[in-house]
Design brief:
single chain, alpha+beta, three-stranded mixed β-sheet, 4 helices, globular
Length: 131
């Protein structure tokens, strides 16, 4: 399996919102990104859940062993935008055979995936996997 380097936010000390994003026409729109704190997740014993039933939050380090990975993982996308990437998008295509795994890793190139707000639907930017 190829090693994928990700710039993920490992810890936020407080709940914060980021006020602006761009739509597909590159015009500025108001957008809040809810970022739960590591402390609040540990206190609650779970990640927050959006209206679509997806969990979201930052990388929890060692606590990931207990909590698991959220469906939407906090990340910094292109141009420094903060949002969430879907775990399934990060994983990308999975090989079915050892030969396919070798082929996928040999030709591995950076790929672009959507960066969402915490609803897991609203695209606020893009994230490059494999840089």
């Amino acid at each position: 399996m190829a090693i994928i380097s990700l710039l993920l936010l490992a810890g936020c000390s407080q709940q914060e919102t980021l006020p602006k994003a761009e739509n597909e026409n590159n015009s500025e729109i108001e957008m809040d990104v809810s970022i739960p704190t590591i402390e609040s997740i540990l206190e609650d014993g779970r990640y927050p859940i959006n209206d679509n039933g997806q969990t979201y939050g930052p990388n929890m380090g060692d606590a990931t062993i207990i909590l698991g990975e959220p469906d939407l993982l906090l990340a910094v996308g292109e141009n420094g935008k903060t949002g969430y990437v879907k775990q399934v998008d990060l994983d990308g295509p999975q090989p079915k055979t050892p030969e396919e795994a070798v082929r996928l890793t040999k030709g591995a190139k950076p790929r672009e995936i959507p960066l969402y707000n915490e609803d897991g639907e609203t695209i606020i930017g893009k994230f490059i996997v494999g840089r």
